[in-house]
Design brief:
The structure holds 2 protein chains of 2 kinds. Chain A is mainly α. Helix content of chain A is 74%, strand content 3%. Chain B has a two-stranded antiparallel sheet. The chains are: A mainly alpha, B mainly alpha.
């Protein structure tokens, strides 16, 4: 095993990790804001990939250009999710909250399977194609630009949450909902905003991934699982923690696959989750 | 201790009134004589599925309803039961009767060894961990050569129906009684459990673990006990189902759908209530089997659409499940003193 192969694995793990990070950031934002885990996160990712795919297939729009549409669509989907479902279960027992979002995930996936069949689809000849060669290192162009887009989106999200007034209001609601309401911050709207932004992040990741990933109805499952792991690893409600956690997961996945056995990739990541939640339940950057 | 326990005692959900008991007597009598009417194989199959899922949902109800931990990977114990008995039979010719016992034991061991490190996890973290573990089992069994990897184990057919090999080729009736027996056994044990000291302590832990802990209830111990009991109830269903279809493969036995269905049935019927799972199963399994007939093999996706929708509707409108629609005096024990 040469140094180049390991370097190659590190780079591809890093690129994948940035995508995991952005997906996890969306999950973490919602989790931190209202203490609800979106078990339908993977299905939302699947929907965003299908939106990108259908815009290409029906309207001939390249996935790169349809990203704004996908983001808006997913944000709308988030607002809808909040007003149609989440609003009613805010005060319910955690058990019910878990079952409700779990039900949403079953519903979306089964509906997608019914409407679009479980076929694998992909976008032919997207604008982003081919690879960049750096010496002996090969980087797929779509992977590279997807990672860059995710990083960009991530920092925009970070700046929004920490620097703008709305972002601060979002944080205030996350910390103490009643106190924030007394200060005139409408919590219901903040929750809807949280869902819109959280799923918007998923829209960016899904739109960019359509360039090089197969689009099928179960595509989101593993990504959602990795996002759960990333949120636990990064620490409850910590957005910047998601960035590190996502990258760590990407690296573990690709290096573990290279050095041990690629068919057990999932298990390495799950092992991290169990180690973290058992020995360091507050995560790497947890506030609590 | 007293305050907490009386509080738990007044809670209606796990109690059973006299009307219910007499109703159940009638129901079990009917179930026992049902095959004598010579129903078609389809109805026997339907009843077998109802018994099987009723037990599986009850197993989930023990961990989620009684002890308050949500397991999203409970299908793993089903698979463990199926694989243990089938492997023992295929490899060593051990009768499935012993295989069922071995499966229960093995499932309990797995539950305890998973349970110990996961003690500290609560709520979402536990749910996610069980989801991951459920999937890990599938991944491992898909690649484990000793148990046939992705193609699984084929249980060799015996020449004739036999109670030793638990295979019946000409009629579904023996299967019917097998599943019925386990169904009655499981419900009686869970009923016994829910009114025992362990049951009360589990509910105390679920409702307020700090108070329970301050009263000297060893929280971790009881959580593990609940997990193990739940696994022991689930495993025999896997073994029996393996005998029923005579093939064991990772995609069927460790299917994530199993975990989804047991959760859905229980929540639909009424979580935390011993009769909840039965109600959910009695409603959903016929619907699911009929859609499978009308829509063919792809019916799976259609019933899942309804399952997801029903789950959301129940969570929003009737978090206590359909059982809460029944008249109060049927589910609540009469106030004693």
């Amino acid at each position: 095993m040469t140094f180049e192969i390991i370097l190659q694995a590190i780079v591809s793990g890093l690129l994948m990790g940035l995508i995991y990070a952005l997906i996890a950031a969306g999950l973490s934002l919602i989790f931190g804001l209202m203490n609800i885990v979106n078990f339908a996160h993977g299905e939302h990712l699947m929907v965003s990939m299908f939106s990108s795919f259908w815009l290409w297939s029906l309207l001939g729009l390249d996935p790169l250009f349809s990203i704004p549409i996908t983001i808006l669509l997913m944000a709308g989907c988030g607002v809808l999710t909040h007003y149609l479902l989440i609003r009613y279960i805010l005060k319910a027992k955690m058990l019910i909250q878990i079952c409700a979002t779990f039900g949403l995930s079953i519903f979306i996936r089964a509906l997608a399977q019914y409407l679009w069949t479980p076929d694998f689809r992909n976008v032919d000849q997207p604008l982003l194609e081919g690879r960049i060669e750096l010496g002996s290192l090969f980087i797929g162009q779509p992977q590279f630009f997807a990672a860059v887009a995710c990083l960009l989106a991530f920092f925009m999200l970070y700046l929004f949450v920490t620097r703008t007034e709305t972002g601060l209001a979002l944080q205030a609601t996350a910390q103490d909902r009643e106190a924030a309401e007394i200060l005139g911050i409408p919590s219901n709207r903040m929750f809807a905003l949280g869902w819109a932004i959280g799923l918007g992040c998923v829209g960016v990741a899904g739109g960019m991934m359509t360039n090089y990933f197969f689009v099928f109805t179960d595509v989101g499952v593993n990504f959602a699982l990795f996002a759960f792991v990333a949120v636990a690893l990064g620490g409850f409600g910590s957005i910047i923690g998601c960035l590190y956690a996502g990258v760590i997961i990407g690296l573990v996945e690709s290096l573990g696959g290279l050095l041990i056995d690629p068919s057990f990739k999932l298990l390495y990541v799950f092992a991290i989750y169990l180690l973290v939640v058992i020995y360091k339940p507050q995560g790497l950057f947890g506030r609590y | 201790m007293e305050n907490l326990l009386t509080h738990a005692k007044q809670e209606p959900v796990w109690n059973t009134s006299k009307e219910i008991i007499s109703l159940l007597g009638l129901l079990s009598f009917f179930l026992i004589v049902f095959p004598l009417f010579g129903p078609s194989p389809f109805y026997l199959h339907l009843m077998i599925m109802i018994f099987m899922y009723a037990v599986m949902s009850q197993s989930w109800n023990v961990i989620a309803g009684l002890s308050g931990q949500i397991s999203l990977g409970h299908g793993a114990f089903f698979g463990i039961g199926a694989y243990t008995s089938s492997f023992l039979y295929v490899q060593y010719g051990v009768t499935p009767w012993l295989g069922i016992l071995a499966g229960m034991l093995f499932a309990a061991l797995v539950a305890i060894s998973i349970g110990i490190p996961m003690l500290r996890l609560s709520g979402h973290y536990f749910a996610i961990a069980t989801l991951l573990i459920g999937i890990s089992f599938q991944v491992v069994f898909q690649r484990w050569e000793m148990v046939g990897a992705a193609s699984g184990l084929w249980i060799p057919l015996t020449e004739e129906s036999s109670w030793f090999a638990l295979q019946f080729h000409d009629s579904k009736v023996p299967y019917y009684y097998l599943f019925l027996g386990f169904f009655i056994l499981s419900y009686l044990s869970v009923w016994r459990l829910s009114t025992s000291k362990i049951g009360f302590r589990l509910r105390a832990v679920r409702d307020d673990y700090q108070a329970a802990s301050s009263l000297g209830i060893a929280i971790s111990k009881y959580k593990i006990i609940a997990f193990a009991i739940s696994a022991v109830i689930m495993a025999p269903m896997g073994s029996l189902f393996a005998q029923y279809i005579l093939i064991v493969d990772p995609d069927r036995m460790f299917n994530l759908e199993i975990s989804i269905i047991v959760l859905l049935m229980t929540v639909l019927g009424g979580i935390g209530n011993i009769w909840g799972p039965l109600i959910g199963v009695a409603i959903l399994i016929p619907i699911s089997e009929y859609t499978r007939i009308y829509f063919g093999g792809t019916g799976g996706a259609i019933d899942l659409i309804f399952y997801g929708l029903i789950l959301m509707l129940i969570c929003v409108f009737r978090p206590a499940g359909l059982i809460s629609l029944l008249p109060k005096h049927l589910i609540e024990r009469e106030k004693q003193r």
